C-alpha cells in the first residue's frame, strides 16, 4: 500500500559533518524516505528537529534544487540577513546556484517536523558562516585542505 | 525570500485529458510550483481538490516516481482493490513501474489540499479503469488510435 507508516522507517542522527561542526545537527533525526519506499528520481527525507537543533549549517548548493514543507511545530528559516518563522504548511524553495545560504533552526521548546526534497548534489556546497566547503565528494576547510 | 506566498501563484484547472475524461478533474486546481519558484530538478505541484473532484484518473507510470503529502482536508486514495483515507500529514509513494493504478478522490464536503512530486514522464502511463493510454507524448485509446 503506497500510504506508508512513517514510524516504521528508521531514523538516524548521523552526519557527515566533520567533528567541529557536527554538534549543531545532533538533534536532527532523519528518515530517508526515497530508499525506503523505492523512489529514485528525487530525494525525500522526513526530518524531526529536537529543540535547539539545526537542519544543517547555513549552506547553498551549486547544483541541487531543494524544497521543504513544514509538517508540524515551527522553525526559523535562516537566510542571508533574514529570519522567517516557518509553521505547519509553510513551504520554501531553494533553487540551485542562488548564493543565499539557508538552514532551519528549531528555537522552540517542542519538536518540529518537515519534509525536504532534493537530489544528490555532485557540485560544490558553500557554507558562508563556518570554515567548511563541500567539493569533489568531501568536506574541506576554506583554504582547500581536507578535514 | 525562499518562503513563498502560495496564493500569489496562479491556479489552473486545465487538463490534457481528452473530452470524455476531462470532467473528473474539473475541480482539480493546480499550482505548478517548480516553474514558479525556479526549481528544475523535480516537479512539485500544490493541488486543491474541490468536493467531488479527482486528482487524476487512476493510473500508473512506467518511468516516473511520484510522492504525495496531504496538507489539509481529506481524500480517499484509490488503488487496485483498495481504498485508504488520507488526512493532513499522510504521505504516499508510487514508485515507477509498479502496476498499481492510483488516484485521490475528494469524497468530502470540503476542499482538500496536497503536494505532488514527480518528474516529467517520458514513458507510458496506464489507466486501468478507462479507455485511455499515454504513450509517445499523447493520449490514445487502448486500441492504439489517437484521441
TrEMBL record, chains A, B:
<dbReference type="InterPro" id="IPR011051">
    <property type="entry name" value="RmlC_Cupin_sf"/>
</dbReference>
<dbReference type="GO" id="GO:0046872">
    <property type="term" value="F:metal ion binding"/>
</dbReference>
<dbReference type="InterPro" id="IPR014710">
    <property type="entry name" value="RmlC-like_jellyroll"/>
</dbReference>
<keyword id="KW-0479">Metal-binding</keyword>
<protein>
    <submittedName>
        <fullName>Transcriptional regulator</fullName>
    </submittedName>
</protein>
<dbReference type="InterPro" id="IPR051610">
    <property type="entry name" value="GPI/OXD"/>
</dbReference>
<feature type="domain" description="Cupin type-2">
    <location>
        <begin position="46"/>
        <end position="116"/>
    </location>
</feature>
<dbReference type="InterPro" id="IPR013096">
    <property type="entry name" value="Cupin_2"/>
</dbReference>
<dbReference type="Pfam" id="PF07883">
    <property type="entry name" value="Cupin_2"/>
</dbReference>
Amino acid at each position: 500500500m503506497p500510504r506508508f507508516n512513517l514510524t516504521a522507517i528508521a531514523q538516524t542522527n548521523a552526519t557527515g559533518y566533520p567533528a567541529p561542526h557536527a554538534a549543531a545537527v545532533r538533534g536532527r533525526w532523519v528518515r530517508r524516505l526515497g530508499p525506503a519506499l523505492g523512489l529514485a528520481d528525487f530525494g525525500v527525507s522526513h526530518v524531526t528537529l529536537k529543540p535547539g537543533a539545526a537542519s544543517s549549517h547555513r549552506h547553498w548548493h551549486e547544483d541541487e534544487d531543494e524544497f521543504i514543507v513544514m509538517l508540524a511545530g515551527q522553525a526559523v528559516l535562516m537566510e542571508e540577513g533574514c529570519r522567517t518563522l516557518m509553521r505547519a504548511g509553510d513551504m520554501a524553495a531553494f533553487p540551485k546556484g542562488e548564493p543565499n545560504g539557508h538552514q532551519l533552526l528549531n528555537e522552540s521548546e517542542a519538536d518540529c517536523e518537515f519534509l525536504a526534497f532534493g537530489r544528490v548534489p555532485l557540485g560544490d556546497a558553500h557554507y558562508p558562516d563556518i570554515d567548511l566547503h563541500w567539493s569533489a565528494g568531501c568536506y574541506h576547510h576554506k583554504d582547500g585542505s581536507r578535514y
